[in-house]
Amino acid sequence: MIYLQDRNLYMEESSSGSPQKPEKTKYQLILIAALKKEIEIARRLDPEKLASEIEKTGFSCQYCGKCCQRAFGDNRVVLTPSEIEKIQKHTGLSKLEVAGPLIPETCQPEETGNKEEGREIDREISSMQPEISETDEEAFSKPSQLFELLREDIDSQGNIHAYGWMLRRKRNGDCLFLNKDTNRCRIYPVRPMLCSTYPFYIEGLKLYTCECEGFGGHISKEESRKLAEALLSRYIAELEDTLAMYEKYEDFEKDKEGLEIAKNNLEKGTCVYVIHDSKGITKMID
Ligand code: SF4
């Protein structure tokens, strides 16, 4: 167990769960078996074929920075625990300054009044100071909408269970590490796999693309091959991470009282999250 008092953030990690692990349900066992199968097939995917699909699609980054900004769509960046550690080492920031619980989007970011706050954090990150002002907390999740989206994940104590981590964003929803003046990433050498393979991703053994201004641009054979390899590594790493999370996962009790507690907490803006990942669970107040 590690206890960390982090400004107003509290975190408690546990890798083993309860000593007596409950039996997995039939549904959980099916999910685990399906994931194992998918990993096995994914390991045999041919990077050459993937590279030629990427080359045919064409892609050249325009450095518009839109994929990092909330105003242009869902810019949540899912992170594995090892990616969080890499960013922590590079920036000197704490775990909870880098990442928070992976929760659904509820509404559009506020477009006014937040630009100055965005610039402020840019300066802080550029000097790699582990200081994040209160104003950089996300402010665009409406408590009532969030409660409805999360109600199935609330336990009898009022804790909200989340399944994974996402990169912290500024108050206006932009990625914490986006330099607004240059549209460049401040943590480029350690940017998450999702960012280094954008706008491509693999799901269910198929290649997909996200909306992007860079489509159709020239990409060399060599670059396509590198991107294909990175995509495959990301796909397998994410599947392995999800598998490890399912294997560690333990179900929780739910009741009306828990829902009331969580609803009140959400309205007050202070929630207790239990984050499940490949290493175990992290309990945090956010
Ligand atoms: S980590 Fe870098 S590349 Fe990824 S969303 Fe943030 S600014 Fe963009």
From TrEMBL:
This is YkgJ family cysteine cluster protein. Pfam families: CxxCxxCC. It comes from Methanosarcina acetivorans (strain ATCC 35395 / DSM 2834 / JCM 12185 / C2A). PANTHER family: PUTATIVE-RELATED, YKGJ FAMILY CYSTEINE CLUSTER PROTEIN.
